[in-house]
Amino acid sequence: MRIVHVLDHSAPLHSGYTFRTLALMREQVALGWEPVLMTGPKQDSGDCLEADADGWHFHRTPSPRGRLAQAPIAGELAVMRAIERRLERLVETARPALIHAHSPVLNALPAWRVARRHGLPLVYEIRAFWEDAAVEHGSCREGDARYRATRAAETFAMRRADAVTTICDGLRGAIAERGVADDRITVIPNAVDVERFTTHLPEDAELASSLGLSDDYVLGFAGSFYRYEGLDIAVRAMAQPPLRDGRFKLLLVGGGPDEAALRSLVSAQGLEDRVIFTGRVPHDQIERYYGLMDLLVFPRLRHRLTELVTPLKPLEAMAQARLVAASDVGGHRELIRDRETGFLFEPESPAALAECVAQLAAAPEAQLDDVRAAGRRFVEQERTWRASAARYAPLYESLLGENRRDTARS
């Protein structure tokens, strides 16, 4: 079975979006399917039509040109026209059994038009509500004209797709509220390659010494520094009474839009010697930094996006049998059972995070080992990419069966 996947962006760019894509594509190949991968103009590939990256072949969409291509609304329309033209040519040559478009709606609407012309089933995969992501990134305000227009377009696309997939139960419920029948929604959850993660990470003494972390209790975060991640809460927690002891350190691995604000906050709080920024590190080196962390913290803020969407990073930490503490928002509650596979604390409260950390630092190691082992079991049993990708099979088979019946009747 050949499936054309229409993507926002892909390798060689690094993001949670691209990691999920390639993990699921590997499993689709293992199931005997043939995924054909296409990216839209947001990949910024210039005039390139095809490219290889990370062992995969991608069909690229050239970027629209001209002044209108940069203008609001006209620019989005130009992007969709470019995607539709490129997808039309690809479908004519690849002759897929179905089209699978992935967020955002700029991919879904062109895919819907092409699918209808060719009589193909269309699956639309919602990885996040992009109007909510735009609010978090500062591109619009909740409820403004752009927000409402994006939401309306997304709802239009969801209702017209033959099936909708999404990454978690929070998003599933919100999609159903928009008028999509429950039996047309399938959850394909985020997951990890368990085999890639070791549960016994040795501490890299040389790295620890270079970062000034040799004899400390280290809180850690590795990922992109976005406002909604709540890393300012982690910084402020370091100044709370339970953590004022100099042995508590915070290690921030990565970078992003909120980095400058975080560095300013660290300076204002006088925490330069206790909050360490590493900058971005190569993906193949990340486990060296994980090995220095006694506790991974995920202090996401209580926003619409974080209530609905599950992140990948806590799963990766649990796959390594690392101790995890996360804010009690909906996306985390789908992944972490409090005091069983990890620990939840009140969102947006530096005091609550500090108290949680202090309690864990003083807890018996045997008790914490039980939590670490339970987290690893949860991932092994429920959150592997193989198990997630297997959920596509009955969905695809159902759509193709309906399509064959419709063709026979026509």
From TrEMBL:
GO terms for molecular function: hexosyltransferase activity. Gene3D superfamilies: Glycogen Phosphorylase B (3.40.50.2000). The keyword Lipid metabolism does not apply. It comes from the Bacteria. Transmembrane segments: none annotated. InterPro entries: Glyco_trans_4-like_N, Glycosyltransferase_grp1, PEP-CTERM/XrtA_GlycosylTrfase. CDD domains: GT4_WbuB-like. Residues 16-190 form the Glycosyltransferase subfamily 4-like N-terminal domain. It holds the Pfam family Glyco_trans_4_4. The keyword Transferase applies. Keywords: Transferase. This is Glycosyl transferase family 1. It comes from Salinisphaera orenii MK-B5. The lineage of its organism: Bacteria, Pseudomonadati, Pseudomonadota, Gammaproteobacteria, Salinisphaerales.
